[in-house]
Specification:
By secondary structure, this protein is α+β, with helices and mostly antiparallel strands. Helices cover about 50% and strands about 15% of the residues. It contains five helices and four strands. Strands 1, 2, 3 and 4 form a four-stranded mixed β-sheet that branches. The protein is elongated and about 65 Å long.
């Protein structure tokens, strides 16, 4: 808490934020609210304020990282990775993935990325005559939804 801050409500809010930081830190009995924590909270608020708009504007992009057999150096497939491109620059996945897992937006993002991959696979099949094997990561949050598999099968079916 900054010395010049006297508003009790702000002080209590910051104490709650510091308390939230200690969850899961079993080796600590306390956490001090500091400028770093405040800056991170402000950054997270900015990201949360624009995440829905970013999804609607297709700012999340799929990048394919090739998987290569080491023996013959031939491509065996790829892994789909999400990248966020906003206002001419990339936002690090390290900044948004943990936050999206915490606020459950990751469920929407996972489904969006999966659909993009299925679209790309259908396009490649039409243009190139084959579909490579592509791995798509999903958050453990998906498994809370008992219809998760059905929803993903529907997407696969939609794109053949």
């Amino acid at each position: 808490i900054l010395p010049n801050e006297m508003d009790i409500n702000k002080i209590i809010d910051k104490a709650y934020l510091a308390r939230a930081e200690i969850k899961g830190l079993y080796h600590s009995n306390y956490y001090l609210f500091d400028e770093t924590l405040e800056n991170r909270m402000i950054e997270e608020q900015k990201i949360e304020a624009c995440m829905e708009e970013a999804l609607a504007n297709n700012e999340f992009k799929v990048f394919y990282q090739p998987k290569v057999y080491t023996k013959n150096e031939k491509m065996s497939g790829a892994e789909a990775l999400v990248r966020w491109y906003r206002n001419g620059e990339f936002i690090s996945p390290g900044k948004f993935i943990p936050l999206f897992e915490k606020n459950k937006f990751i469920v929407k993002l996972d489904k969006y990325i999966f659909e993009q991959v299925c679209k790309d696979l259908a396009d490649w099949r039409g243009r190139l005559g084959f579909m490579p094997t592509v791995s798509v990561n999903v958050s453990r949050e998906q498994f809370v939804d008992e219809n998760f598999i059905d929803k993903y099968v529907d997407i696969c079916t939609k794109y053949g």
